[in-house]
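Lay summary. Proteins are chains of building blocks that fold into shapes, and those shapes determine what they do. In this project we predict the shape from the chain. Here is one chain we studied, written as its sequence of building blocks.
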Amino acid sequence: MDRFLDKFFFVFHSSFIAFLLLGWAWRKTRRANLAVILLTAFSWFILGIWYGYGYCPSTDWHWRVRARLGYQDLPDSYTKFLVDSLTGLNVSQGLVDVLTLVLLLLAFGASLYSNLRRGREKA
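And here is the predicted shape, written in a compact code that computers can read:
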């Protein structure tokens, strides 16, 4: 079951990130995208008060599964894990954190703009 969960979390979390970054581009997904971005920010900054900045429940659960599978020395963030896995490099955690935050802010701006613009078009 843990092997299945490991693959599930990899696909789910990666898809979640892709939707977070790009979901604003399609009219039908704009509201959901904005909600996902706000939930992510809530997790990072509000839950992060208790669990550490950038806290993500999905990463927490995934790392628990991977620990049961014998993986050790997992990075603090899923994004670093994903970048390192896809590139084969060992990218600096600080660089990944900065890029992740910048991309979240850009996605938030695009989502907010596209949602507000849609509201004005209906009026």
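What the prediction tells us: The mean pLDDT is 94.
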